[in-house]
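USER:
I would value a second opinion on how I read folds in token form. Give me a protein, with the fold worked out from its sequence. Write it directly below this note and I will take it from there.

ASSISTANT:
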Amino acid sequence: MPMSKEVRLTAPTLKLLKIFVEKPREEFSGAEISRATEIGSGTLYPILARLEAAGWLKSTWEKINPSEEGRPRRRLYRITGQGQTKAVHALAELQTAPGALVWN
């Protein structure tokens, strides 16, 4: 397992983490995350890479035969136990901070 690194919690990062916290047992493709968060791929994939390097997310390749499916395999991302704990804490801290933003 990768060693935990400090994760910069930008607004797009928090928005992305909220998706995983709400459904911690699900795997999401980058395209699904992008649609749900409205974060563009140029921002999204570097965030996913940083979160994976920090041990907050893990990813695997979809187990399909691309020629049978008629499309490339997708990389699927899932939050780790460590990521869940840290993300819940970060989102809760944001909610209780003075002048906190309210997440929908």
User: Anything to note?
Assistant: The chain has one domain: 11-92. The radius of gyration is 14 Å. The mean pLDDT is 88. Residues 11-92 form a domain with the Arc Repressor Mutant, subunit A fold (CATH 1.10.10.10).
